[in-house]
Each structure stands twice: as structure tokens, then as C-alpha cells.
Amino acid sequence: MKGGPVKRSTRRSKRGDHDLVTSMSTRPWMGVTITSDAAFQVSVNFGATACIIRDHQGSFKVAQANWYDRCLDACTMEALACRNGLMLAREHGKQWVILETDCLELVNLWKKRDSQRSIIDPILKEIEDLWLAFRDFLLFMCIEIVII
Fold first, then answer.
1. Does any domain span residue 15?
2. Is residue 4 part of a domain?
């Protein structure tokens, strides 16, 4: 096959009672998408976060990566990655935001943040405070499928 492997991306998430499916070429609105991810090394409790902001057409706008010398666990790092992505979007004056994460545990904690407590509650509260600065905000659980 010419040009190397074909990568097809499908993103699925739940919001309320509706399943939302988007692709790189189709966005729900003319805002930006923040894709966040994290890494965590258990043996030494090091971690890192990264986020990338793309416009409604999928074009790169800005990215950021942060290193943490001490961290609790992978879910905490994923929450910090989401928080850092929202902070970056706010710094660049973005108003309509989709935040994508691949951490199902974080999405479930976000949905139940008013009825249950977790170790990452302070970070979830920061995320909630940050999203109030935007005109519109969606949190997506992403699953990427790569077909080669």
C-alpha cells in the first residue's frame, strides 16, 4: 500500500442518554478540541502530562507537556492532563471546548463528582472551575482504533 499504514480514528463518548460519535473531519461545533493524555511510572512515582489543541478542522493550534517528579497514580495524572489542557485553552482565549481523554475511570468520576468522593476531587473541582470560563464545554471518552 502506498504511503504506509492507514489510520482510522473513531471517538465514542456518552453524554447524558445520547451516544456521541465524532471523527477528525466532523466536529459538533466550530470550537477547539483538547486531546489530553498522561504517563505514569509506578516504580518511582514519576509522571508526565501532555495536551494538544486543534481547531474544528483538526489543524494544530498549540501543545504543552509537563513533567511531575511526584505523583499518586495514573488516574491522578490523567486528571492533571485534563486540567492543564483547559488552562492552556483559557490562556489562548478559546471559548468553545471539547476535552478528550482516554481514561474511563476519570470520566466516571467526573459524572459522579457531586455524589461520591475520590482522591482526585480537588483536581475535578479545579476542572469544574475552569470550564465555567468557557461558553460551551464537553468531556469525551475517546477510544482510538488503529487499522493497519
1. yes
2. no
- Other C-beta atoms lying within 10 Å of the C-beta of residue 70: 8
Residues β-bridged to residue 68? 47
Rounded to 5°, angle at Cα 44 from 86 and 66:
25
Q: How many CA atoms lie within 13 A of 24 on its CB side?
A: 11
Is this model's pTM higher than 0.85 or not? no
DSSP strands (E only) in the chain: 11-15, 18-22, 32-41, 46-54, 60-68, 96-101, 136-141
Residue 128 φ then ψ, to 5°: -60, -40
Domain that holds residue 39: 11-141
Q: Out of 82-86, 106-110, 132-136, which region has the weakest mean confidence (pLDDT)?
A: 132-136
101: closest CA among 123, 70, 119, 117? 123
CATH number at residue 122: 3.30.420.10
Counted domains in the chain: 1
